[in-house]
């Protein structure tokens, strides 16, 4: 059996801990995150203070890479975006919005 944190989605607060042999199904209101023994110990130590416990105070927040790989469909969409906004936005802004390198944006601009 594995332990799972029951997380209230809107607040990211841990509501409870459950044990289940199968992974519970998340809903619009609650999601379930597997809890290791170390994470459970942290949870129970903080629980004694009777304050809401944010999930990301116990586990590390997932990081989004700064530069994302593009599929061929994404590359086509990027070409359309750059051609539409090249006169209104900077290369830096377009690369930030699309999470691609500035070099990728410059390559698209050269191809136009």
Automatic annotation (TrEMBL):
It comes from the Bacteria. This is Uncharacterized protein. It comes from Pseudomonas petrae. The lineage of its organism: Bacteria, Pseudomonadati, Pseudomonadota, Gammaproteobacteria, Pseudomonadales.
């Amino acid at each position: 059996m594995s332990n799972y944190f029951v997380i209230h989605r809107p607040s990211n607060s841990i509501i409870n801990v459950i044990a289940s042999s199968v992974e519970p199904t998340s809903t619009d209101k609650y999601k379930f995150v597997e809890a290791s023994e170390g994470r459970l110990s942290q949870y129970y130590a903080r629980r004694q203070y009777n304050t809401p416990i944010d999930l990301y105070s116990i586990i590390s927040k997932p990081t989004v890479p700064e530069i994302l790989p593009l599929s061929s469909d994404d590359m086509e969409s990027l070409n359309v975006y750059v051609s539409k906004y090249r006169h209104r936005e900077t290369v830096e802004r377009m690369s930030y919005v699309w999470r691609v390198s500035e070099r990728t944006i410059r390559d698209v601009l050269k191809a136009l």
